Amino acid sequence: xxxxxxxxxxxxxxxxxxxxxxxxxxxxxxxxxxxxxxxxxxxxxxxxxxxxxxxxxxxxxxxxxxxxxxxxxxxxxxxxxxxxxxxxxxxxxxxxxxxxxxxxxxxxxxxxxxxxxxxxxxxxxxxxxxxxxxxxxxxxxxxxxxxxxxxxxxxxxxxxxxxxxxxxxxxxxxxxxxxxxxxxxxxxxxxxxxxxxxxxxxxxxxxxxxxxxxxxxxxxxxxxxxxxxxxxxxxxxxxxxxxxxxxxxxxxxxxxxxxxxxxxxxxxxxxxxxxxxxxxxxxxxxxxxxxxxxxxxxxxxxxxxxxxxxxxxxxxxxxxxxxxxxxxxxxxxxxxxxxxxxxxxxxxxxxxxxxxxxxxxxxxxxxxxxxxxxxxxxxxxxxxxxxxxxxxxxxxxxxxxxxxxxxxxxxxxxxxxxxxxxxxxxxxxxxxxxxxxxxx
Length: 440
Prior knowledge:
alpha+beta, nine-stranded mixed β-sheet, five-stranded mixed β-sheet, 13 helices, 23 strands
């Protein structure tokens, strides 16, 4: 993409309404625009990041056996009355009426609707286990939306739901998502630590939050320092191997890890002093096993191998892609701007023409742009007439992981400069060697 043709409304001034780093940088980098309190338009740069995050989530859900569908955002109030949650959910639920005065709502979550779908079609244990997921916009009418997309009213959510005949089968499904989440966050360049969590309004008796450490995190967390060195499950993890997945779960829950709500000071102090880690954290995922909490009131049953009807065992598993964008920025930034993990950066490579109008620099940039694009890289070519300093500032602000600086002085020596955003390192390299260097 040529920057001269790209919609990138950079703000040079720090927005006064932005209270935290991610909100400031997302507004300055032209990623989002506020349309109402807690409601944002995702501009092209932000949308590219959001799409890459969703693609990673989708790949790992599919790998773990998930089936993607898409449920509507508007739900019938009758479904929520059937579960008993319509009156209990509170003012966060946006309640509306259609032209026929039927009570509807803008869905804050989808346990009721997915249970209704499954009870209509799944009648035998032979159709289980089953995992259905979707990636959909949701709405919760927060009393005080703040911090940009970190805590907004409208947000994008991946929610998956598992359905099993027995508690043992449901636990295997839970472990599948546990391992899939570890892989998902690792692929995004994040170290997510699973911590025992309250089940809250979702309900159930088993729940884990996945927390990334960040100095600007909203909650205080306590854990064993060895979590930082633990490797995620490999790409070839066997999701049908119940014993193997239980081993992964046991390994990742064998060390102490707790949010402030679940913190046990005595257990934390039992950790060797040099291994105790108290920090701030950001929740990026939450998984639940809640048994028959929804299937029982909905009459969602299957005929078992014993010829008897059995209520379906269920779990739910959430990741907020839009919140993840903000969380990544909170965890990885500097004074110049965003430092994206390579896998989710809006563009992998930036080409900066430091002498617009110069035939040699333009020819070199065009050649680099063509070769990198043909090799499958997402490239942003700054072909504008801005001064070099402004181009450097923009590239760092939006977090381009690799930046190729093309100027007449370097070209006279047969070189361009390759900059790595994460550590600021630079090297002189021949234009023809750039592709191999990036592959390496």
